[in-house]
Design brief:
2 domains, 14 helices, 380 residues, mainly alpha, J_dom_sf, DnaJ_domain, J domain-containing protein
Length: 380
């Protein structure tokens, strides 16, 4: 079971300036432009998502503490019972059984042993189950190997085709020369196609240069401008006061992290935290200047969405939940309680089953029949 306590930096940084990053229209000015409204929307979306991730981290920590207390002992007992069932079925494989009963026994044995192999933290237990898995896993039929003589070309076939030409036969010579001409023409056409492709690529590059920088280049340029202003403001070597130097060093470390991850919103917040941000300046930025900012914020939002998906799927795998199910921080503990109930039910079922098998050996065939019915219903 995974216990990934790592926290991604995008959700660790303090949310200190979200409200100050908002562009508000003054009473005596025109309404916000489309780019200004988009900027506000991305800032709010990112702030909401980062708050969600912080709540998620807190909920996951609480769930792990609860599962470590109540779930780990239950899971250990459950795996011990699964291993005991696999060993019992291994012993019963020597009994006289029908072909169908034997197939069901081996299938159930493999399922129990594989669960222990996948989840057990005990090396000896896992090794014993791995041995059962190796013994009872059906052998796959080997694919017929291709005849080496047919697969590999002979030395004569690999040699120059001209060696096989009967130069005394005019028709054979004509066919050989025609084939040579066709090959030369095809090679020339490939060379011309490559030349045309390179020429078109150069033209496209020249046309792009004439149009000016791309949207991505403008976004990166905007990111660099904010970073450079912060680096100039916070450079520790320019500060004489030790306390202020320490503060700027810590801020600069966060600036570098945000810049390397292309997270514009963190840089803007750090710009405010460094007492360099004037909220009024945001409203004075033209749409042309805001557009690259909006593209960077959109990329940051997409990164956060991928972060959310990765975390929810990791949590689902960790606690044996459906990875396709949408999870919310406020409902995580309920998911863990449900998982604990499932583990307890599994422990109770296996304990009762093993006791019944021990009390009456004939119970095995009845159980196998029940398993066959269950499998049919599941597959329908």
């Amino acid at each position: 079971m995974l216990h990934n306590g790592a926290v991604i930096a995008s959700s660790c940084l303090p949310i200190v300036a979200t409200s100050l990053l908002r562009i508000d229209a003054a009473a005596d000015q025109a309404p916000l432009s489309a780019q200004q409204q988009l900027f506000n929307a991305w800032v709010q979306r990112i702030a909401d998502q980062r708050a969600w991730l912080l709540a998620w981290d807190e909920a996951v920590q609480a769930c792990r503490s609860r599962f470590a207390r109540d779930g780990v002992p239950l899971r250990t007992r459950y795996l011990d019972l699964q291993a005991a069932l696999a060993l019992y079925l291994d012993q019963q494989s020597a009994r006289k059984l029908s072909k169908l009963e034997r197939q069901l026994l081996e299938s159930c044995l493999l399922e129990s042993a594989q669960q222990v192999v996948d989840l057990s933290d005990t090396p000896a237990q896992r090794a014993a189950m791995e041995e059962l898995v190796r013994r009872y896993t059906p052998e796959e039929d080997d694919e017929p190997e291709e005849d080496a003589a047919q697969a590999a070309p002979s030395a004569e076939q690999a040699s120059n085709a001209s060696d096989d030409i009967d130069w005394q036969d005019p028709e054979a010579v004509a066919q050989f020369l025609e084939a040579q001409e066709q090959a030369a023409a095809a090679q020339a056409e490939r060379a011309r196609a490559q030349h045309r492709a390179k020429r078109q690529q150069r033209k496209a590059q020249q046309a792009q240069k004439a149009k000016g920088p791309t949207a991505a280049e403008l976004a990166n340029q905007s990111l660099r401008e904010v970073y450079r202003r912060l680096a100039s403001r916070l450079h520790p070597d320019r500060e004489q006061d030790p306390v202020e130097r320490a503060r700027k060093t810590a801020l600069m470390q966060r600036v570098n992290i945000a810049y390397e991850a292309s997270r514009l919103m963190e840089l803007l917040e750090l710009q405010w935290e460094a007492e360099q941000m004037d909220p009024a300046k945001l409203a004075q930025l033209s749409d042309a200047r805001l557009a690259p900012y909006n593209r960077m914020l959109e990329e940051q939002w997409n990164d956060l969405q991928r972060d959310v998906q990765a975390r929810t799927q990791a949590f689902a795998r960790e606690f044996g939940l459906d990875t396709a199910k949408r999870l919310q921080p406020a409902k995580l503990m309920a998911q863990v309680r449900e998982r604990l109930q499932q583990l307890q039910a599994g422990v109770d079922y296996l304990r009762q089953l093993l006791q019944a098998l021990e009390d009456d050996p004939d119970t095995l065939k009845q159980w196998l029949k029940h398993e066959r019915t269950w499998v049919r219903q599941r597959d329908q």
